[in-house]
Amino acid sequence: MAAETPASTAAEPLIQVEKFNYAYGDNQVLFDVDLNMSSEDVTALIGPSGCGKSTLLRSINRINDLVDSARVVSGKIKIDGIDLYAPDVDVISLRRNVGMVFQKYNPFPRSIFENAVYGLRVAGVKDRHDLEEAAERSLRSAALWDEVKDRLHEVATGLSGGQQQRLCIARAIALQPRILLMDEPCAALDPIATARIEELIHQLRGQYTFVIVTHNMEQAKRIADRTAFFYKGRLIEEDDTMNIFNHPRDPQTESYITGRLT
Amino acid sequence: MNSPTTPSRPPLRSVLLRSRKRTILGVDPQKLIKYFFGSNASVAIIVLVLIMVFLLREGIDFLPTYQRELQTYRRAGLEFCDIIDQPLQRNQALSSSLRQAVSASLETLSKTARDWRDAAFLLKRQVEDKTARPRESLTQALEKTPPAPEQIEVFRRELGEASAAAAKALDYPAVFGTAEREQLQREFAALTPEVTDLPPLLQTLAAEFSAKDREARTKFASLVQAQEEFEEATEPLQEVVDELKAKALETKEKAVEFDVLETNRLRLLEAAATETDAKEKASLTKEAAESVSEAVNLEKSIQEITGRTAELREQVEKYAVVIEKAAAVLPQDAGTGAARALVNEVREGIPAHAREMRAAAATLEGWRWDKPVSIFSVIGAFFFGTQWITNSSWQDFFGFVPLLSGSLVIAAIAILIATPVSVVAAIYTNQFASEREKEMIKPVIEFIQAIPSVVLGFIGISLVGNLIKDVSEWSWLQWVPGFPIQERLNMFNAGCLLAFMAVPTMFSLSEDALNNVPRAYIDASDALGATKLQTVFRVIVPAGISGILSAILLGLGRVVGETMVVLLVAGNRIAIPDFSAGPGVIFHPAHTLTGIIAQELGEVSRGSSHWQALFMVGIVLFAISLLVNWCARAVARRFEPHKA
User: Fold this and answer.
1) Residue B3, C-beta contacts closer than 8 angstroms, at least 6 positions apart
2) pLDDT, tens only, B522-548
3) Residue A169 in contact with residue A200, Cβ under 8 Å?
4) Interface subset of A 116-135, CB within 8 angstroms of B
5) Which residues 518-547 of B have a C-beta within 8 angstroms of A?
6) Which end of chain A has the lower number of beta carbons within 10 A, N or C?
7) What are the backbone angles phi and psi of residue B176, rounded to the nearest 5°?
8) Alpha carbon A34 to chain centroid distance?
9) Distance from CA of B547 to the nearest CA of A (A)
10) Is the CB of B529 less than 8 angstroms away from the CB of A95?
11) Closest to B248 (Cα-Cα) out of B82, B392, B397
12) Rounded Cα–Cα distance for residues A138 and B335 (Å)
């Protein structure tokens, strides 16, 4: 499904953030964010800690709804033209179509197979054959199949950190989502495991729309087509990654990427 | 960046050497404090060890003591008598079933007449109660010498008025028609102390009932006769058994007395041997010499008993024949359905009973009075003994099974009730409740722990017991096994209250377990499009299962060890619950391991076999608690994948 995404949507961005204001209780964390993300791109969100980039990411699949005091103050996030915070949006369906990978790899304490098919199981798929097929497909996509195919029924927490993170990616793409949100996916991994994840993102680009939060400037340069820089809850600058890193327009962007702004 | 004003500092090597000036009794205070804290921590361990040592020391002597007692039980011939006497007890159960069948059958004919008679007599008594005062005055006046006719007249009038008023105010049951009601009223109003005969209508009613009863007895003559025969059948056999029992008991008492004196004598001699003062020694020796009693010739007296084996067997055989004959004449159609069921039960029970009696008689020959009682059979008699009988004039038995089974059934009921309640409450509080609800639910549930168990005990007696009994009488609930229940104080009642007591522990620990489930799992599940319920049941509960299981086990530990509630509410009948009654058995009363200790330990003499038996029960209880707690810890460790 992801592969058939027509090129015409390049003109019409898949994710549109419009004048988005977001708050935890009285503490507003996003101010008037305007950002378009197109379906073919890998978009990196960068910025110092507490700048609101993770909040924006977590608003796209509305997983922040679970935080008691979190609320949208004003503005919209649209996917394919639909406002995500409209009352008739099916949140469960949204989350099935917008996968998420977290900073700390978090497979369930169950078998590798059960992890891979968890999303399908909760979506009501019962047929053993379908599940096995989906597990193999997603584990292959996540470049994990060859490493785990002989021990699919061993507990997932026995894998190495990098493998566990790739399992989490496999788990997310088993549902064949359109969009994959990644919240610092390599923060807890060593350089080799990081490289493998980045390679995986390269392989999967085009099939999924990636939105990645990262603190690693080099990583953003390596994997992102577009980069957005956030500071104190505001979007400071958004452009092609090369432009951001080579010719930043805003002095704050420049001081951040050169390590003078924290 | 030192400024020139920095004060001069002491040379480094003088600082590096530790100053040892400040010591307490030559010890470094730091160490002293460490020892202080360490010793406080070890107090708990020391106390635990002391408890174990103390329990074992008091309890372990039980086995040899009980062995001696069982030895005497055998040698004096009590065991011999019990071979026949025990199965003979079954006769009473069968008899009482038959008696019930007889009265149920008779009632089919005479019930209406009896109800009338009883109702009329009840009314009469009510009138008499209400007019007690004027009646008393009149009686006194009548007895007075010399008589005072005027006074008597006044009292008589007063009594007449009072009786008339009382008779009028009565609440007449509907069984009496208008005419009868009026006649009764008249008769009641005319009641005076001089007339001792019953009023005519009452006489008629009584006569009617007698007639009906006679008629019923003729109609069910064969049943009545069978019942009488069956009841009388035991008499000749029981007579022989009682004779033997008396003889055996006499022997046993003598043997026990001899034992006491002999022990005393040996102790005195021992004291005399170590005594240095010559005068004291002489007096001790003399006392010892006086303490001598005649040794019982066990062999001779046992032969008096076993010598009658043939006679006993003959009587058993006769008895068996008689009851089998009675069973054969039991009529097929005995009044109501209930009576028929009872009769059938007896008809089937009798041949089994007869077989049992014959088998018992056969074992008499093989019985040997001088066969020693091994320590293993004593252990077996304790752990698998089915009778807990104490302070008996015949023989004390310390069998553990009735208490254990009571404790286990009650604990099982409590856990079955408390587990769903506390786990579901924990899931709700942890996952669905708002902050405000959490703030309300948690302290309330935890407050339950603060209720003294004795208070819960009388809630069980006064409230839960009546509630269960009333509910069990609702007609649309009669499909529940055991309904309607007989006893308000029963295992189910105790189980309910214990469940209530276990809920706070289990709730808090389960809630902690759910709380400890990493947030990351929940996020992952939500991000994959799981609904709240799916997340709870597919991720949170499985991840917290070890904590939940361990909470259940700790709840079990608490329930098994709880004393006050079971003592007050479980009904305290020392018998193995009648599991043949099916699931309805939970509505039977029982006694427990904890309850028996609490109830009996205060009343037994220190060091007696009963005292030691209670300590044995304590040891087992202690072992069970240790085991349960150990399991809880093992479970908590076993399934903790997210901490691996």
Assistant:
1) none
2) 999 999 989 989 999 999 998 888 899
3) yes
4) 118-119, 121-123
5) 518, 520-531, 534, 538-539, 542-543
6) C
7) -90, 130
8) 18
9) 15
10) yes
11) B82
12) 78
Q: Do B529 and A93 touch (CB under 8 A)?
A: yes
Q: What is the ipTM of this complex?
A: 0.88
> Are B528 and A168 in contact (CB < 8 Å)?
no
CB proximity under 8 Å: A 74-93 to B:
92-93
Half-sphere exposure of B391 (CA within 13 A, CB side): 5
The strand pair at A27-37 and A42-46 is best described as unpaired
Place of tokens 């061993």: A154
Range from B333-347, B348-362, B462-476 carrying the lowest mean pLDDT = B333-347
The model's pLDDT over B9-23, given as tens digits with 9 standing for 90+, comes to 877 877 777 666 677
CB contact (8 A) between residue B641 and residue A109: yes
Tell whether B44 lies on the interface with A, counting CB pairs under 8 A.
no
What one-character DSSP code corresponds to residue B539?
I
Cα separation, A106 vs B278, in Å, equals: 89
Q: Is there a contact between A68 and B435 if contact means CB atoms under 8 Å apart?
A: yes
Give the pLDDT band (50/70/90) at residue B4: low
On average, the pLDDT of chain B sits at 85
Q: What is the pTM of this model?
A: 0.77
- The SS3 call for residue B514 is helix
Determine which of A108, A168, A171, A211 to mutate to test the interface with B (most B C-beta atoms within 10 Å): A108
- Put simply, the answer to whether A95 touches B534 (Cβ < 8 Å) is no
Q: How far is CA B538 from CA B525, B530, B545, B644, in A?
A: 9, 9, 11, 20
Report residue B249 CA to chain centroid gap: 28
What domains, with CATH codes, occur in chain A? 13-108+177-257 (3.40.50.300)
In order of their start, the domains of chain B are 94-221 (no CATH), 401-638 (1.10.3720.10)
Q: What is the DSSP letter of B538?
A: I
A·B CB contacts under 8 A: 71
Q: Sheet holding A42-46: strands in order across?
A: A98-101, A179-183, A209-213, A42-46, A226-231, A234-240
Partner residue opposite B529 with nearest CB, options A109, A119, A168 = A119
Contact A238, A229 (CB under 8 A): yes
Q: Alpha-carbon distance B589 to B406, whole Å?
A: 8
Alpha carbon distance B452, B459 (integer Å): 11
Query: If contacts are CB pairs under 8 Å, which of residues 380-439 in chain B contact chain A?
Result: 435
CA dist B364 and B84 (Å) reads: 8
Query: How far is B501 from B372, CA to CA, in rounded Å?
Result: 48
Q: Which residues of B touch A180 (CB under 8 A)?
A: none
Predicted local distance difference test score (pLDDT) of residue B644: 39
Give the closest-approach CA distance of B502 to chain A in angstroms.
30
Of B524, B531, B644, the CB nearest to A108: B524
Using an 8 Å CB-CB cutoff, list chain B residues near A68.
435
User: Which pLDDT score, from 0 to 100, does residue A165 have?
Assistant: 92
Residue with tokens 């407050």: B447
Q: How far apart are CA A170 and CA A245, in angstroms?
A: 31
The percentage of residues in chain B with a pLDDT greater than 70, rounded to a whole number, is 97
Angle between helices B90-130 and B149-169 (to 10 degrees): 120
- CA proximity to B562, closest of B601, B602, B595, B587: B595
Q: Cβ A99–B525 below 8 Å, yes or no? A: no
Cβ atoms of A256 and A231 within 8 Å: the answer is yes
- Closest Cα partner for A171 from A148, A202, A198? A148
| Separation CA B488–CA B470 (nearest Å) | 10
User: Any idea which of A7-21, A248-262, B99-113 has the lowest mean pLDDT?
Assistant: A7-21
State the pLDDT at residue B43.
Answer: 93
Interface test with B, best of A96, A106, A180, A182 (most B CBs within 10 A): A106
